[in-house]
Amino acid sequence: MPKSNTPKAKAKTTRKRSPSKALKQRSLDIFALLTELYPQATCSLDYETPVQLLVATILSAQCTDERVNKVTPALFAELPDAPAIAGCDRDRLETLIRSTGFYRNKAKTFRVLAR
């Protein structure tokens, strides 16, 4: 039987990778440079935790920070952390963020990130 010329499909691995020391150092260097260049920079999004900042940042895509800050108090009161977001019904999550636009994609993204 002749051999096929098509390459074999590689098996996907779901191994978690941690950032390399070099990548971590590069991130710290970039952060230091940005802090030096923009010492007065502030974030206009309202948040209390890193997860809430991530959610608010995603909500701000194609939306104003003002609108995001109107939506997030009710959102974060009901869904304050990643486990709450992961366990939330998609329809409910979409309802909470509808006014920010692209709410279906954003809700899908939040649920994946939260897991």
Question: Can you describe what's shown?
Answer:
Helices cover 58% and strands 0% of the residues. By secondary structure, it is an all-alpha fold. It has a domain at 50-114: Endonuclease III, domain 1, CATH 1.10.340.30.
Parts with pLDDT < 50 across at least 5 consecutive residues: none
What's the number of extended β-strand segments?
A: 0
Q: What's the rounded overall pLDDT mean?
A: 89
The number of helical elements comes to 6
CATH superfamily of the domain at 50-114: Hypothetical protein, domain 2
Report the major sheet.
Answer: none
Per CATH, which architecture of the domain at 50-114? Orthogonal Bundle
Radius of gyration, in angstroms, nearest whole number: 20 Å
Structural class: mainly alpha
CATH topology of the domain at 50-114: Endonuclease III, domain 1
How far is it from the N-terminal to the C-terminal residue, by CA? 47 Å
Helix share, percent: 55-70%
Strand content: under 5%
- CATH C-level name of the domain at 50-114: Mainly Alpha
Overall form: globular
Order of helices and strands: HHHHHH
SSE arrangement:
Blueprint: H1 21-37, H2 50-59, H3 65-78, H4 82-87, H5 90-97, H6 103-114
Sum this structure up briefly.
The chain is an all-alpha fold. Helices cover 58% and strands 0% of the residues.
